[in-house]
Amino acid sequence: MKVAVLCVFLIAGTKAFPKVQDDFQSSKLRVKPKVDVLPNGFVNPRINGGQEAAPHSHPYQAYIMIYLSTGSGYICGGSLISPRHVLTAGHCLVDGTEATIYLGAHNVNEQESSRIIVKSHTLIPHKDYNADRISDDIGVIVLDEDVQLNDYISVISLPSKGAGSYEGDNVVFSGWGLLRGGDADIPATLQEASTTVISNQQCKQVYDIVIDSQICTQGTAASCDGDSGSPLVYGDTQIGVVSYSTDDCSLQYPSAFTRISSYLDWLEENTGLKL
């Protein structure tokens, strides 16, 4: 798996989905680092950044297909934060008209008994999302109906408004993104990776656009095509949303996430939830 990514899919005529893996091409937000060689203090990561997650070990995980009015669309990740709401990246929802969401899935190419498919006609990207700066990169999908929670489908907790920076903490992100930059196919099974939060000051040495409402990680994994909108989790709390990384999903460089604690008021306003 590995970054801030949008995967383009082709729809011929009707909105039917044959085998998910067969009909998709990947594209993504591209951010060029301002340095070719990392400054001192950055780790030298392993070559492979992730592994297949244990089936249903992330029951809040959502696989999202977003339709555009042009007939094409995006694949993104997300997380269930209430029986009616899925949290994702703002760039996933811009220009979207509706979405199909898989919940309770592990292998998206198989008809698993745990999986349900739900629809949404209400996509809410942050109104101030800026594609040039990749700021305010957060959004909410309102499902057409509440989902029933169970052992395979559950909500993830969000941080408190007084949450700290998480600098130095070990965190996990998960998604169906590419296993490495340049791969032709996205994986069918959910992947996960552990990594470490670094300071924003350190991250700014690599990306000019880093702001306080973002979290950066760097270590043994990087986000990649198809991971956009997927959750970054500390313990049992989601603290970030996959936003961007380098254009080749390099493990050498940091990955950036939207910092959820910066948007709790916005989430309350747009979901009616009390956080």
TrEMBL record:
<keyword id="KW-0645">Protease</keyword>
<dbReference type="GO" id="GO:0006508">
    <property type="term" value="P:proteolysis"/>
</dbReference>
<dbReference type="InterPro" id="IPR043504">
    <property type="entry name" value="Peptidase_S1_PA_chymotrypsin"/>
</dbReference>
<keyword id="KW-0732">Signal</keyword>
<keyword id="KW-1015">Disulfide bond</keyword>
<comment type="similarity">
    <text>Belongs to the peptidase S1 family.</text>
</comment>
<keyword id="KW-0720">Serine protease</keyword>
<dbReference type="InterPro" id="IPR001254">
    <property type="entry name" value="Trypsin_dom"/>
</dbReference>
<keyword id="KW-0964">Secreted</keyword>
<dbReference type="InterPro" id="IPR033116">
    <property type="entry name" value="TRYPSIN_SER"/>
</dbReference>
<dbReference type="Pfam" id="PF00089">
    <property type="entry name" value="Trypsin"/>
</dbReference>
<dbReference type="InterPro" id="IPR009003">
    <property type="entry name" value="Peptidase_S1_PA"/>
</dbReference>
<dbReference type="GO" id="GO:0004252">
    <property type="term" value="F:serine-type endopeptidase activity"/>
</dbReference>
<dbReference type="GO" id="GO:0005576">
    <property type="term" value="C:extracellular region"/>
</dbReference>
<protein>
    <recommendedName>
        <fullName>Peptidase S1 domain-containing protein</fullName>
    </recommendedName>
</protein>
<dbReference type="InterPro" id="IPR001314">
    <property type="entry name" value="Peptidase_S1A"/>
</dbReference>
<dbReference type="InterPro" id="IPR050430">
    <property type="entry name" value="Peptidase_S1"/>
</dbReference>
<feature type="domain" description="Peptidase S1">
    <location>
        <begin position="47"/>
        <end position="272"/>
    </location>
</feature>
<dbReference type="InterPro" id="IPR018114">
    <property type="entry name" value="TRYPSIN_HIS"/>
</dbReference>
<keyword id="KW-0378">Hydrolase</keyword>
<feature type="signal peptide">
    <location>
        <begin position="1"/>
        <end position="16"/>
    </location>
</feature>
<keyword id="KW-0865">Zymogen</keyword>
